[in-house]
Design goal:
The complex is a heterodimer. The longest helix of chain A is centred in the middle third of the chain and has 16 residues, at 61-76. Chain A has a single domain, classed as STAS domain (Transcription Regulator spoIIAA), CATH 3.30.750.24. Chain A has helices spanning 31-41, 61-76, 88-96, 109-116, and strands at 6-14, 17-26, 48-59, 80-84, 104-106. Chain A is α/β, with parallel strands linked by helices. Chain A is built from 4 helices and 5 strands. Chain B is an alpha+beta fold. In chain B, strands 1, 2, 3, 4, 5, 6, 7, 8 and 9 form a 9-stranded antiparallel beta sheet that branches. Chain B is globular and about 60 Å long. The chains are: A alpha/beta, B alpha+beta. The interface between A and B is large, with 35 and 39 residues.
Chain lengths: 117, 245
């Protein structure tokens, strides 16, 4: 339950917008790493948090649950949450779990940043 | 769309669906409030969002997590408290399968609803609720080893589906749900020959209520089950006159 196999990096491509790059596996074991990354990404001046799933290798249902809790935190901070880099497989999972109704999915970073503006 | 589907989890997820369909109703299942309903995540619910974790360390036995999950999948309904029925799909607990449920409610009401098997692999499986269920969300059943000890766990991430359910959950519903899953875990442990108490952790993830979702009450399976039950005498009377009946 504690051997997280995810690498996360946070960057700010422009003021008010943060990108969290997820590389590896999103499972229940990713909880503290994801939470820390979200803390770094959601400074008070940030209005949109963008998740980059281009490096996602594996995700189970506990991982989807973690994304829901991140979304709640973003809503509490009045921040929008967006995503890009999802493979067709993971895009379908977002649709199946109806996460796509709350996290806008975009083709690439430029599209996500434009939507976040 | 950047990478190829990962083979490790591709088979574990249900295929995309728009609405639930019960393909073959199990004998005895009323099978109402399921077919044609959309699956609901916590995002589509009304009430406060809760994460409830029920965990039991399986002491006194040496068992692999995969074996625990195999047993749990095969005997899932047997571990439930009396008065509640889980009509397992013919294919068992497998991704994309839909199961009908009849749950005991106060006042003798049998609430009929269902679940979609959202995800299932060797060490976990997740059931997702449809519109009208008491809560919008999912329950993940898993087993894992830590320090040489295997534990079984049920974790619920949910919001009550509508204002009526939220009221019910606040006044006794949460306690009833806790007892349900604690009983389930104790039964599982007993079946495996283990001893161990159930640890319960409850976290309120979001205290806010989503008033825009109050209209979910239209699908309320409790109300619809009550209407269905009150119509039973009429259906009984009409049965001989039905075509093919």
């Amino acid at each position: 339950m504690t051997d997280a196999t995810i690498r996360l990096s946070v960057r700010t491509p422009r003021p008010g917008c943060s990108v969290i790059e997820l590389v590896g596996e999103v499972t229940g074991a990713s909880e503290s790493a994801l939470s820390d990354a979200f803390d770094r990404a959601s400074a008070p001046e940030v209005r949109a948090v963008v998740l980059d799933f281009g490096g996602l290798e594996y995700m189970n249902s506990s991982g989807i649950g973690l994304l829901v809790t991140l979304l709640v935190r973003a809503n509490r901070n009045r921040q929008r949450m967006l995503a890009y880099g999802l493979s067709e497989h993971y895009r379908q999972i977002f649709e199946l779990t109806r996460l796509d109704e709350a996290i806008a999915i975009h083709e690439n970073e430029d599209a996500a940043l434009a939507a976040a503006a | 769309m950047t990478t190829e589907p990962d083979k490790r989890d591709a088979a574990a997820w249900a295929q995309p669906i728009d609405r639930l369909q019960v393909t073959a109703a199990a004998p005895g299942a009323r099978n109402i409030n399921v077919s044609g309903r959309r699956q609901t995540s916590p995002i589509q619910g009304f009430g406060r969002m809760w994460q409830k974790t029920y965990r039991t360390p399986l002491r006194g036995i040496d068992v692999a997590p995969a074996h625990v999950i195999d047993v749990w999948k095969r005997h899932f309904p047997e571990f439930w408290p009396k008065g509640n029925s889980f009509f397992a799909p013919l294919a068992g607990i497998a991704p994309g399968e839909v199961a009908a449920l009849d749950l005991s409610m106060p006042g003798g009401l049998k609430l009929s609803t269902g679940v979609l098997v959202l995800y299932a692999d060797d060490e976990s499986f997740t059931l997702m609720t449809p519109q009208g269920h008491m809560f919008a969300g999912w329950i993940t059943f898993s087993a894992f080893s830590e320090g040489g000890l295997t534990s079984a766990q049920a974790q619920v991430l949910m919001r009550a589906s509508d204002p009526m359910y939220e009221l019910g959950m606040t006044f006794g519903g949460h306690g009833k749900e806790d007892k349900h899953w604690q009983h389930t875990l104790r039964s599982l442990a007993e079946h495996l020959g283990a001893t161990g108490e159930v640890e319960t952790t409850t976290v309120c993830v979001d205290r806010g209520r989503q008033w825009s979702r109050a209209t979910n009450i239209w699908h309320n399976a409790g109300i619809r089950s009550g209407i269905y039950m009150s119509g039973a005498p009429i259906r009984l009377f009409a049965r001989p006159f039905r075509r093919g009946g």
